[in-house]
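DM from R.C. (forwarded with permission)

"hey, sorry to bug you on a friday — could you get me a structure for this? deadline for the figure draft is monday and I only need the backbone to look sensible"
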Amino acid sequence: MAVKTDIEIAQACEKQRITAIAAKAGIDEKYLEQYGNYKAKVDYAILKDLQDRPDGKLILVTAITPTPAGEGKTTTSVGLTDGLRKIGKNAMVALREPSLGPVFGVKGGAAGGGYAQVVPMEDINLHFTGDFHAIGAANNLLAAMLDNHIQQGNSLGIDPKQITWKRAVDMNDRQLRHIVDGLGGKVQGVPREDGFEITVASEVMAVLCLSSSITDLKARLGRIIVGYTYAGKPVTAHDLKAEGAMAALLKDAIKPNLVQTLEGTPAFIHGGPFANIAHGCNSIMATRLALKLADYTVTEAGFAADLGAEKFVDIKCRMAGLHPSAIVVVATVRALKYHGGVPKAELNEENLPALEKGLPNLLQHVSNVRSVFGVPCVVAVNAFPTDTKAELALVEEKCRELGVNVALSEVWAKGGEGGKALAEEVVRLCEEPNHFDFVYPLDLPIEEKIRAIAKRIYHAKHTLLLPAAKKKAQQLTELGFDKLPICMAKTQYSFSDDPKLLGAPQDFTLNVTDLKVCAGAGFIVAYTGDIMTMPGLPKVPAAEKIDVDENGVISGLF
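My reply, with the result:
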């Protein structure tokens, strides 16, 4: 019998009305703004009404360095939450919204997999409740007001060659990375070099995810720096009188989205910054709401623990006053063999030497979680039918040497039932001693904070700030931004800035090419290697396989 695809499993699910899911979560209908029968916005006024309720436990799901073999963070997050409910715990999951870029590019969908998914899967993967469109509109409104100001006399003295604000579109479109616009004569605008970022890399996305209220949102929007004057003074959205209109566009987008898992577990899906070029975590408001409503909140941070988890700790937790009780590191035997040098086509064959060679990648992530972040940790091995007993035993043996338990996660095939063992271990870890700490103190100089991440998390031997980055570090220090945390923009495929360095490289230099302050979000982005903020489509994009029939039924999402 043919194995069902993710979308076939999702479409066969008998979903509960969103009002029933809200009731299960403890959300009064007065806070609910329904988008059809199966998804809703939750009014942020509920946070004020729940402020005296104690927080539940916060569990972060992260992973090893990603490979083409796949790891399954979202699948594990959903299955773990269903597993927690299976063992009698009041649990919710808080995740990010998928970007259309990866949906039509490589991934083809990002709502979990198998029997551990959030639904309605098609809606979540496509337009959902329109949040990303609102974020893109707010981003581009600011761009339009910026260029209009220059066209209308430029009273602020903005230097067109020092504009840092880009336009945004939620699509992988390499053609838009570097453009020249304003062509066609005087009335068409001021000709200048420009470019687009993917919406998930926009600072507006980060601002929305890091805001604690609509008032905070508006204040953060006003602090966004769009460029510099001829005299070198920063120009902000507030200087352009743009933050009010931008906040108006985002007034609904800032409200968390409520959906459900295949098993009817309440789930918040809100915000979606990438973790390689942004901070990679869902919104603070959705996380806080889940913590007030549930005894256990499961959330995930993008890509591997060197990116998403580090930013979750040093940016999100620091800003929101959050404190994770346990961290889950997801791995697969197949991915570890890939890190050990096995080609993708041969990953189904048992290969203990390659597995042992690839295991240092997992062990370094685990060590970082326990020794640097100071949080109790469990390794979740996302099970594949091709995994052998000897391979699973080797992973368990090496992790135990570090004092970390391994739980076999079978959530893809069995849903919450396959996540019970992981759930039991997570509950145990939540009561363990916790020495949560940040990677660096904020009062270190900018260069020292970057070096702390490079040395303590990536295990780089040297950190090299290229001349442009050194100049920016000095400039940002002089402008008073040196006390902000760092958001590293780095390839997700390696601990280093070279995507070809697999495993756990040690003797490498991290090259920092440039810096940019995101004053609204409240961090400094450090660009490394060849990282770009606008991805491109692969040779065979997932979009080629996505279709819709005469009844409106979508196929090809996976």
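R.C.: lifesaver. The first strand starts at residue 32 and ends at 34.
me: no worries. The chain has a mean pLDDT of 95.
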